[in-house]
Amino acid sequence: MNKPKESTEKKSTWLTWGKRLLTLAFFIVVPALLFMLIKNLEWQEVKEALLAYKPTTLIMGAAIALTSYCVFASYEVLGKKYIGHDIPVARIMPLGFVCYAFNLNLSALVGGIAVRYRLYTRQGLSVATITQLISFNMITNWLGYIILAGIIFTLRLLNLPESWKIGAAGLQVIGIILLLVASAYLLACAFSKRRTWKIREHEITLPSFKMALTQACVAALNWSLMGLLVFILLPDNAFYPTVLGILLISGIAGVITHIPAGLGVLEAIFIAMLQHEIPQGSIVAALLGYRALYFLLPLSIACIIYLVLEKKAKVAKHENKTDEHLSAQ
Predict the structure, then answer these.
(1) Where are the domains of the chain?
(2) Given pLDDT bands bounded at 50, 70 and 90, which one contains residue 30?
(3) Looking at 58-62, 142-146, 180-184, 304-308, which range is the least confident one?
(4) What does each C-alpha distance from 105 to 172, 260, 314 come to in angstroms?
(5) I want to staple 179 with a disulfide (CB 3.0 to 4.6 A). Which of 55, 127, 150, 225 is the partner?
(6) CB of 269 within 8 A of CB of 250?
């Protein structure tokens, strides 16, 4: 009678240790790879590349970054329609902006979970509802990722270095698998009679097919904007699908290592996969610009919005207590 339970426990233990070993491997490999790639880097070249950026390029980059954050915040609007809570869109859009900025800069535990629980509970949502919303947002984000990565890998749109060409077939297989996974989700949303699934104590209710398509389009747009920002900061000979594909690869590597903002991971992967086409100095300059525009600029705005939201919440709480006191009298 206990065999299935013991088997499950052993499987869980193997998965846990597998994740730990994979994370440890990334922590060892990424810094070593980064050191090997930049040890001969000409920092004067990086400086010149940074100074060569036109103000119009930086303004366009800032506009792309902020648009991407607004698109991400719209995940919250989709979540509102999915769950059916009554918080106005005007409140949840800035909340989503804050959570995304904190998530990218300070890790998913801080921005994606802790801050979201704090802000949404102050809006009157229950813990169970917020958990459901977080799950929906995660599915939305990774659905767009899976579709884009699937298309780029399957069509071999990544211009890999000659020594990496052997990996093109492997990436193509991964791309096909990703597209099959995305198709399975969309088909389930369209035709499945069973609408609720339980995965590791979490209940997931399938949205409508129309909602699922909206999830895919919005998330794919968000990832595409992130890739576009890096692309416009690179020299003219950069190929957008390759830049986007490398960004997607670095994104999953950053998740595996749990390093906030993917520090070091992004740089190591971009330099390794793009240095055969673009000088290292230009790559590093583009990534520094990307970090400034996509991480630091929105984070500074998000901190101000967060303080405003906290102040409004305190005022609302004080007014509620005053009303309760007057009612009691």
Answers:
(1) 55-315
(2) very low
(3) 304-308
(4) 31, 6, 26
(5) 150
(6) yes
- Give the max Cα distance, the chain: 80
What's the CA gap between 44 and 238, in Å, rounded? 21
Bridge partner residues of 199 (DSSP): 202
Cα radius of gyration rounded to whole Å, the chain: 22
Pair of tokens at residue 80: 């509102």
pLDDT digits (tens, 9 = 90+) for 81-97: 999 888 999 989 999 99
Least confident of 2-11, 105-114, 163-172, 183-192: 2-11
Torsion angle defined by CA atoms of residues 168, 173, 174 and 179, in that order, rounded to the nearest 10 degrees: 120
Q: 137: Cβ–Cβ under 8 A, 6 or more apart, which residues?
A: 75, 76, 79, 112
- 280's CB contacts (< 8 A; 6+ apart) are 37, 38, 41, 42, 45, 271
Q: In angstroms, rounded to a whole number, what is the distance separating the alpha carbons of residues 325 and 318?
A: 11
CB 267 within 8 A of CB 285: no
Task: Please choose, from the candidates 81, 112, 77, the residue with its C-alpha nearest in 3D space to the C-alpha of residue 98.
Answer: 112
- Give the residue among 216, 217, 269 at the shortest CA–CA distance from 245: 269
**Would you place residue 1 in the very low, low, confident or very high pLDDT band (cuts 50, 70, 90)?**
very low
| CB burial string 193-229: b at 16+ within 10 A, e below | eeeeeeeeeeeeebbeeebbebbbebbbbbbbbbbbb
CA-closest candidate to residue 134, choices 197, 82, 170, 88? 82
